[in-house]
Structure formats: structure tokens, C-alpha cells
Design goal:
Length: 177
Amino acid sequence: MRKDTRSSCPISLSLEIFGDRWTLLVLRDVIFADARHFRELLAGPERISSNVLADRLAALVEHGLLTKADDPSHKQKVTYSLTEQAIQLVPVFVQLNVWGIRHLPVTDVHTARAEVLAAGGPPVWEAFMDELREAHLGPHARQRPAPSGPTVAARMQAACAAALDRADDSSPSLQVH
């Protein structure tokens, strides 16, 4: 933690970590897109530069929100994993999504994933957090047994795919005369 913080207010201290343009987007991509490698994160839709991404990843590791480990499949690759601290941000992301859906011009595809979490409320958030714990921390980290049926991640992916299909169906087709 930095020693030159503005105050001991929890909002101010949180902004020391999350108060830039990129940090929450990097976490979003690890949490919701399962981007675990530098190149995957670099390919995000907002087009973060490699030096900024490297800086944000280092800061997230330093603050204990991500861990970094050598990738066994490739000598020059590392894998980033969420920590419990980062997983506990899921409700914050849900609330940011809900606020954005209400007040900003988001697309249906971006709304779909958020609606799965928002509609399910805290029980679905907890189930998704357990899925993240299992994927990033190991099966031992689950706080409750895995429920039967599709995972929350699979339901979010299906909702996004359905929204994409609807968007494709509603776009005007080109007719050749």
C-alpha cells in the first residue's frame, strides 16, 4: 500500500487502487472474459496499450488482487489469477453494470450478462464467485457445493450469444438486385 495516501477514508483508499481509467477494466476482463494472459488482456475492446497494461497488472499483483504464476504450457507466458479480494468485487461490478444499464447507452449484448447477475441477485453473485474461486484458487476454495445445472458463467455466455443473435436478426440484410 502506498504511504502517500490522501486520507484513511475507505472510498479514498479504494480510489488509490481503482481510480484510474484501466484497472477495473482489466479486472472485468479477468472476471467475466476469463482473460488470464497478457495477450488476451491486451486484445480487450478498449485497446489498452501494452505499457499501461503491464503497469496495471503489476499494481494489481502488488495490491493483492491478482497473482502471477509461470504458465506450464509456455516458458515465456505467465498466468494471472484472481485472489479472494478481487473475487469479492463481483457485487461492485454488478452494481456498476446496473447503474450503467439504467443511465448510459449500452448495447443489448453488454446488458445481457449483467442482467443474469442482476436478476439472480446475491445468491447468483455468490454462485458466480464460487465458480471464480474454483477456477482461480482451486476446488478447495469453494464456499458451497456446486449447484446442479448450468454454471452462472455458462448462463451469462448464453445470454450474450442470444443477444448477439437478436442483433444479427434485427440488422437489415443486404439485398442484391
